[in-house]
Write a structure and sequence with these properties.
The complex is a heterodimer of chains A (about 325) and B (about 325).
Chain A: H1 2-32, H2 39-64, H3 72-87, H4 94-118, H5 123-141, H6 151-157, E1 160-161, E2 164-165, H7 166-182, H8 185-195, H9 197-202, H10 207-233, H11 244-254, H12 266-285, H13 290-317
Antiparallel strand pairs in A: 1-2
Helix pairs in contact in A: 1-12, 1-13, 2-7, 2-10, 2-11, 2-12, 3-4, 3-5, 3-10, 4-5, 4-10, 6-10, 8-10, 11-12, 12-13
Chain B: H1 2-17, H2 19-37, H3 44-69, H4 79-94, H5 101-125, H6 130-149, H7 159-166, E1 168-170, E2 173-174, H8 175-193, H9 195-205, H10 207-212, H11 217-243, H12 255-264, H13 276-295, H14 300-318
Classes of the chains: A mainly alpha (about 325), B mainly alpha (about 325).
């Protein structure tokens, strides 16, 4: 009983550093950008955040299961070019576009999952190799940026429903999806496998299937991220997403998910992604000279990474 | 008779499952395939050229090998950017004059060492996982590059450096291959004949045991990251000699291939087991593969796909991890 209480407290304290970073980021951003809380700012800010937020959720699920996925950026690129090609700019095919993007993502994830879990290779190298397969495929589908996203998609993405921007709704829906997923037996298995695969195996958890499914789910989420990216940019680009995979790993770490697996959750990763995205905003509004912007941004990110790792390390030691 | 045959079979199997042997066989096979498909691919001059291209990846992979051997989930994602940064600093300091060569080599390597030191300190004292620390450092170094250059690459390699890298010293072999060979020998001696090397393997195998037997684990790990950054910087400098002028992303693409070369070379990603000879051959395999796909005139997109597939197949040959059941 007391062990369980500890665990509940653990989870809260673990997220504390992440939430503190979010509060600091929001306060700084609000001070520097007076229009920060206007509907327009929130809409356009979140419109750019959503893809990374979705990929961070995807990455969190894989990392909690003890894996790592460097190919998520390439999956986003592939899903987006396939979806934009299938939709052909017609409003009537948006539903089809979503289905195709998610399916492409899930199939890519299945490839990753099978190679990592069944063939049993190092996830880091496997997903580096598959990233090259997926981004090559994206280039085959669409050799250079182009295509038109159905106007209804880009239109709705920038509007608000009952005063809440659609892009914010997208994040909320994604978080709800995670919260539902969190309740399933599958996610309990994912935590068990990520925490101690040997013990999980001994307790009859289907380790191979669970590991595979984490990559499939991550692929599907990346497919959703591809649709958000399309809605935001208005056209297809096979080169998109080069930084997304590494950024999603940073987001996951800032969100208090241990790279070793078994700890943390996607809510932290979402907050981490938003913190990272806002950090770039803050540096921009701080009037840092252009050439120093990236350096300051890099230092802020490394600081955020260190802070969240340190706070969770102390928790683990206790 | 039967037992002898069996023993011989076992020996063959052992030899073939030795990653270094296997990687060498694959490298040779790739060259043979290249020669069959496009005569001249396996010619002396072409092979020397392939090795020259492989040398940059091979030298950057020296540091990656050491960091991975040190264990503790060791990895250095900043090597590509550090190599680029070193080349950028080097080209500015040298500015095309031999008189600035010494300074132009020392300054970038010192900067690289400083970056590696920060990596090591963060990993050891702040207990930031290597993957995260070096990932963060990747962003910082990219920022440093922009701040230092203002977005414009300038300067030029000293002619002497270019002569060393591209000039044919003997048997029409370019100098950079002699540099690589010397470094490979030096590193193998460092790993197998010095206290640092022994400590590295001990730390990589079991940190607690290493600590208990009086090895300074912290110092060894920090040294590993400093070494990694210095070799990345050196790789960048040699690349500068090869290209003569720099781009802002000169060596960035070496980051993950350097890890792949180490893994193909049979060094365990969990640390403690492996060595540099494998990584060097891994670098050659990756380069020959890339070159073969270019020679086959496969379009860029399909080449990327085939590259990924072959890398997976290579890893599947021996990179497999043990079953949970056993």
């Amino acid at each position: 009983m007391s062990g369980m209480l500890d665990r509940i407290r653990d989870v809260r304290v673990g997220a504390l550093a992440t939430w503190a970073l979010l509060v600091i980021a929001v306060v700084l951003n609000a001070i520097l950008q007076p229009t920060f809380f206007s509907l327009y700012s929130i809409t356009s800010n979140f419109a750019t955040f959503v893809p990374l937020v979705l990929v961070a959720i995807a990455q969190a699920i894989v990392v909690v299961g003890g894996g790592l996925d460097l190919s998520l950026g390439a999956i986003v690129a592939l899903s987006s070019v396939v979806a934009v090609t299938v939709m052909g700019g017609e409003d009537g095919r948006v539903g089809l576009g979503f289905a195709v993007a998610i399916a492409v993502g899930a199939v890519c994830g299945l490839v990753n999952g099978l190679v990592v879990a069944v063939v049993r290779l190092q996830p880091l190298i496997v997903t580096f190799a598959t990233a090259s397969i997926f981004s090559g495929s994206a280039l085959v589908v669409m050799p250079k940026p182009g295509g038109t996203v159905p106007p209804v998609m880009t239109g709705i993405y920038r509007t608000a429903v009952a005063g809440v921007p659609v892009s914010v709704l997208a994040v909320l829906v994604a978080v709800c999806l995670w919260l539902v997923l969190r309740q399933t037996r599958l996610m309990r298995h994912v935590y068990a496998v990520g925490g101690d695969p040997g013990a999980a195996y001994a307790s009859l958890v289907p380790v191979t299937r669970t590991r595979t499914l984490t990559y499939v789910i991550a692929g599907a989420f990346s497919g959703l991220a591809a649709m958000a990216l399309l809605a935001n940019s208005g056209s297809g680009d096979p080169f998109v997403g080069a930084d997304i995979a590494l950024n999603s790993i940073a987001a996951v770490v800032v969100g208090g998910v241990a790279l070793r697996g078994g700890r943390g959750g996607a809510v932290g990763a979402v907050v981490g992604a938003i913190v990272l995205a806002m950090a770039a905003n803050i540096v921009f509004f701080f009037d840092v000279p252009t050439t120093y912007r990236q350096l300051v941004n890099g230092l802020v990110i490394i600081g955020a990474l260190a802070l969240s790792v340190l706070s969770s390390a102390r928790r683990a030691a206790r | 008779m039967t037992t002898l045959a069996l023993a011989q079979g076992a020996r063959w199997k052992q030899a073939l499952t030795n990653p270094i042997v296997l990687a060498s066989v694959i490298a040779i096979l790739l060259v043979v395939i290249g020669q069959l498909v496009s005569p001249g691919f396996g010619s002396y001059g072409q092979i020397i050229n392939l090795l020259r291209v492989a040398s940059f990846l091979g030298i950057i992979a020296i540091g990656q090998t050491i960091v991975i051997l040190a264990g503790g989930e060791g990895i250095d994602l900043s090597v590509g950017k550090v190599a680029t940064f070193a080349a950028i600093i080097g080209s500015r300091v040298m500015d095309g004059h031999d008189a600035n060569l010494a300074l132009g080599l020392l300054v970038p390597l010192a900067v690289a060492a400083a970056i590696g030191l920060v990596n090591g300190l963060g990993i050891v004292y702040l207990r930031i996982p290597p993957f995260v620390m070096t990932l963060g450092m990747l962003g910082v170094v990219q920022g440093l590059i922009l701040a230092y250059t203002g977005g414009v690459a300038a300067g030029r390699a000293a002619p002497a450096l270019t002569a060393l890298v591209n000039g044919r010293l003997a048997l029409s072999i370019p100098g950079v291959l002699f540099v690589w060979l010397l470094l490979a020998i030096a590193i193998s001696l460092l790993l197998h004949r010095t206290r640092f090397g022994w400590n590295l393997y001990a730390v990589g195998t079991n940190r607690v045991a290493a600590e208990l037997s009086g090895i300074s684990v912290n110092r060894t790990v920090i040294s590993a990251y400093v070494t990694s950054a210095v070799f990345a910087g050196l790789g960048g400098m040699l690349l500068l000699g090869y290209t003569e002028s720099v781009f802002l992303d000169l060596a960035d693409q070496y980051m993950l291939p350097s890890v792949a070369a180490v893994v193909i070379g049979g060094t365990l990603i969990s640390g403690g087991i492996g060595g540099y000879a494998g990584s060097a051959i891994g670098a050659i395999v990756l380069t020959v593969l890339e070159s073969l796909l270019t020679t086959l005139d496969i379009p860029n997109a399909s080449r990327t796909i085939v590259n990924g597939v072959v890398l997976l197949l290579l890893l599947a040959l021996y990179g497999r991890q043990r079953r949970l059941r056993s």
